[in-house]
Amino acid sequence: MEFLDAHKKDKRKKWLENLLGRDWELETAGGSTGEAFSAKDGERKLFLKCNSSPFLAVLSAEGIVPKLLWTKRIANGDVITAQRWVNGRKLKPMEMKQPEVAALLGRIHRSTELLDMLKRIEAKVMTPEVLLQRLCTYSLPADQQSPIIFKAFEFLKARKSTVYYDNFVVCHCDMNHNNWIMDEEEGLFLVDWDGASVADPALDLSILLHWYVPKKEWHEWLDAYELDLNDQLLERMHWYIVWHTLEWMLSKGIYEDSGYVQVWLRYLNVLVEDDDRRITRLED
Predict the structure, then answer these.
(1) Which Pfam families does the entry mention (predicted)?
(2) Is pLDDT of 25 > 50?
């Protein structure tokens, strides 16, 4: 499999070299798919990607990603997009607390242009029911199944109807700090939109706030996002952070490192037990 993947990457690189000409130097630009490249010709530099979503054009027009320069289809059927290279850097985890991050995400979530475009491309809405169905596609060997995993899944099933929210927006779905690029001249960009979906904004907010922003600062951060923190939002974000954590554990196969997985199982258990305590207090 690795040999086939390497062969595919080399072949794609040759197609790009033929497309750009011999003066351009190509290098892979990270990622495991082999679909992203940097191209340099003297002072000129481009970011190239194969088979990006048509959604990229409207993201560029909105200034959310670096400017899209051209799109071309090559002989093997791949669609190549070229964006202007920005001399930026990835945000550090601690920088995700900045109001600029909140403001940009709020602008994305409120954009009707982005929502209309993504609905044309992706008809399925990522409702709690659909997200639960996704979890069911993963499986674990019998010796790696944990009671905490089943407890978290039961938590999600029991509360899916109570967190349903139909004011859907465009969600990026991967709030990792590495996807936020700060450019000194043009400000902040959010990149890598391949997994974007129409969903509850809490799908993005949950992981960003829980993993990057201290809880005492949530009110301030959401002020910059232009949203009030209320009990309904807290409930929805709690459901989605349990889903994110469970989905991440199952999809990444972290069971290969038993010490590492124990840390995540403890975190998942704390999330579910914290909700149990909160429900008990409300009933009292």
Answers:
(1) APH
(2) yes
